[in-house]
Amino acid sequence: MNAAAGQPLDAKLYVIPGSHPAMAARRMLELKGIPYKRVDLMPVISRGALRALRFPSNTVPSLSIGGVKITGSRAIAHELDRLRPDPPLYPSDDGELAAVEDAERWGEEVLQPAVRRILWNALQRDRAALASYAEGARLGVPTGLAVKTAAPIVAAAKRMNRAGDEAVRADLAALPGWLQRVDDWIAEGVLGADPPTAADLQIAASLRLAMTLDDLRPAIQVRPAGELALRAMPDFPGQAAPILPPAWLEPLRQANRPAANG
Ligand SMILES: N[C@@H](CCC(=O)N[C@@H](CS)C(=O)NCC(=O)O)C(=O)O
User: Fold this and answer.
1) Domains annotated on the chain, with CATH
2) What are 159-204's pLDDT values in tens digits?
3) 134 neighbors 18 (Cβ within 8 angstroms)
4) Alpha carbon of 21 to ligand 1 centroid (Å)
5) Shortest-distance atom of ligand 1 to CA 112
6) In angstroms, rounded to a whole number, what is the distance separating the alpha carbons of residues 2 and 9?
7) Measured by CB atoms within 10 angstroms of the end CB, which terminus of the chain is less buried, N or C?
8) Are 22 and 61 in contact (CB under 8 A)?
9) Phi, psi of 121, deg, nearest 5
């Protein structure tokens, strides 16, 4: 029996709790009906662990499946489609495929790192929310202890992801335009497939992580982009109370303000 016919694939997925590309990979495996073992890693420390395990790179998601080691949400999506074609994560029509892959690439290269920067910046301001992202995770130490000792890890993650105030303020100023881009893709039928494509999942995971911030959720959930995110990724851990400077959120408030009559 081959993989396409349903042979067990012996899959192990390495994640960081709350990591958005890792949540996308989890959802891909779930949609394909591939059972897997999840290994939860602490941020920053994950890098050494994945290097020691000889993955092609040291970020999550990393997946070992059928004797192959893959790193990266996009590479994982392609490998899963190869191993278990149904349901497909990519359309078979060439034109549709190109549009979906463009959206997926943008989701990984633009939206994903921006949401990561916003999150680390917010978490360094208030670490109280950290435990909510680790809900259900098995980190090898009690979650309470992991959270209590997380200050140096959060500081390092913020530094490594260049999540300083200037960068994050620029990300928040760009966010309304990015949400409009996602709404437009939904209107054009590039995004919003049922079952979701790799692009839907890539973008939905970032939007879902952004929506864990009370500062951002109201501006996202009311739009088609927010509806897509909730539909494609119904479950997502984490919740952070308002913490970002209100002035930084002004572009989002402006974008969501109803147009004046006349
Ligand atoms: N763009 C990569 C994601 C790579 C990435 O930066 N992942 C983060 C978690 S969201 C990571 O592994 N960070 C390592 C760390 O925090 O030390 C993908 O889509 O797979």
Assistant:
1) 3-83 (3.40.30.10), 94-256 (1.20.1050)
2) 999 999 999 999 999 999 999 999 999 999 999 999 999 999 999 9
3) yes
4) 7
5) 1
6) 10
7) C
8) yes
9) -60, -45
Q: Which atom of ligand 1 is nearest to the CA of 61?
A: 20
Q: What is the CA radius of gyration of the chain?
A: 18
Residue 80 carries which DSSP code?
H
Helix axes 198-210, 165-188, angle to 10 degrees: 140
Query: How does strand 68-71 pair with strand 36-40?
Result: unpaired
**107 Cβ below 6 A of ligand 1:** no
Most ligand 1 atoms within 8 A of CB, residue of 13, 27, 57, 59 to mutate? 59
Residue 5, class by beta-carbon neighbours within 10 Å (0-12 exposed, 13-18 middle, 19+ buried)?
exposed
Query: Which residues are bridge partners to 38 per DSSP?
Result: 13
- Nearest Cα residue to 23 out of 239, 240, 235: 235
Query: From the CA of 82, how far away is ligand 1's center (Å)?
Result: 23
pLDDT one-digit tens code per residue, 212-235? 999 999 999 999 999 999 999 999
